[in-house]
Design brief:
The protein is of the alpha/beta class. The protein is built from 10 helices and 11 strands. It folds into 2 domains: 115 residues, Rossmann fold; 164 residues, Rossmann fold (3-Layer(aba) Sandwich).
Length: 302
């Protein structure tokens, strides 16, 4: 059995779709999977059970990336073609069954919209597939001894989502008073822009572990899984932390937690005061974030 799974360009949306993919693996354990996604999310699927191929969709003018996908898939007869991006591509492929998720934004959790395709209640939680090599590297970066490691994610793909970086120093001071043995780890994505956003926090916390920029997505997930807590902006990294099973506190301002709250076994969020979707994230105080983080630490204490 061969399944074509067309998922998101953005990392956060791709992570949210992994629960649905895990459901398909469970009900079709011998299936071979082809994943179509954007370049940022491609590494997320490298350890997927039954993976046959990852097709990287690079956006092209006049939507020609969809033509590229059709060309890459037309030679195969599919048993199931599942399109989470609402395109017409699967109508022009040979497939026994097709399922298409309506495109565009709409109210409610994205995770619930995905689950509705298979009428699943509750929705399957996002997951991440790790290799032994990923876990080995993670153990070298995030130590098991010496106290808990708390992950901080100060970056995002839009400046409006970024909690002011200068607030991480007083936040950490508050957390360190309550958890003297704790050590921070700073997570961020590849590229100069991500590094520049994370650098002020790295410089402000000289004992921090530099856990960004040079790692694959599954390596990052394996490192996050070893952390006691993740605190960070609404971003793909936030969703990856929740999927890895890390207690996760998402920070929201002008983005909507009602649509993109982190989803995992122990995930929550805090939003700046004001109308949802319009509140400046700078309105989120250090005291409020400290309180939410402390509560989550207490609730998930082993």
């Amino acid at each position: 059995m061969r399944i074509l799974f067309i998922t998101a360009t953005r990392l956060g949306d791709a992570v949210l779709s992994t629960g649905l993919l895990a459901h398909l693996i469970q009900i079709y354990p011998n299936a071979r999977f082809t994943i179509a996604c954007g370049p940022v999310a491609a590494g997320l699927f490298q350890n997927l059970p039954g993976l046959e191929r990852v097709i990287i969709m690079t956006k092209r003018p006049h939507d020609r990336h969809w033509l590229d996908l059709w060309k890459a898939c037309i030679g195969q007869k599919w048993d199931l073609a599942l399109d989470l991006r609402g395109s017409a591509t699967t109508f022009f492929l040979r497939t026994r069954k097709r399922m298409i998720m309506r495109g565009g934004r709409r109210p409610g959790l994205r995770l619930n919209h995905l689950a509705q395709l298979f009428h699943l209640t509750p929705p399957p939680m996002p997951t991440v597939w790790l290799s032994e090599a990923d876990k080995t590297l993670a153990s070298q970066i995030i130590p098991a001894e010496g106290g808990p490691v708390i992950a901080l994610g100060p970056t995002a793909n839009w400046t409006g989502k970024i909690w002011p970086t200068e607030r991480y120093l007083p936040l950490w001071a508050d957390l360190a008073r309550q958890n003297p043995a704790a050590r921070p780890a700073i997570f961020y994505g590849p590229g100069e822009q991500e590094r520049a956003l994370a650098l002020p926090v790295l410089q402000a916390l000289p004992n921090a572990i530099d856990a960004g920029g040079r790692f694959s997505l599954t390596q990052v997930a394996a490192m996050l899984a070893r952390c006691r807590l993740f605190i960070g902006n609404d971003s793909g990294l936030m969703h990856l932390a929740a999927a890895a099973g890390t207690p996760t506190l998402g920070l929201f301002g002008p983005s909507r937690a009602s649509e993109y709250a982190p989803s995992g076994r122990c995930a929550t969020w805090i939003a700046a005061p004001g109308p949802e979707g319009e509140a400046p994230i700078a309105g989120l105080s250090v005291a409020a974030v400290t309180q939410a983080a402390s509560t989550l630490l207490a609730e998930t204490h082993a």
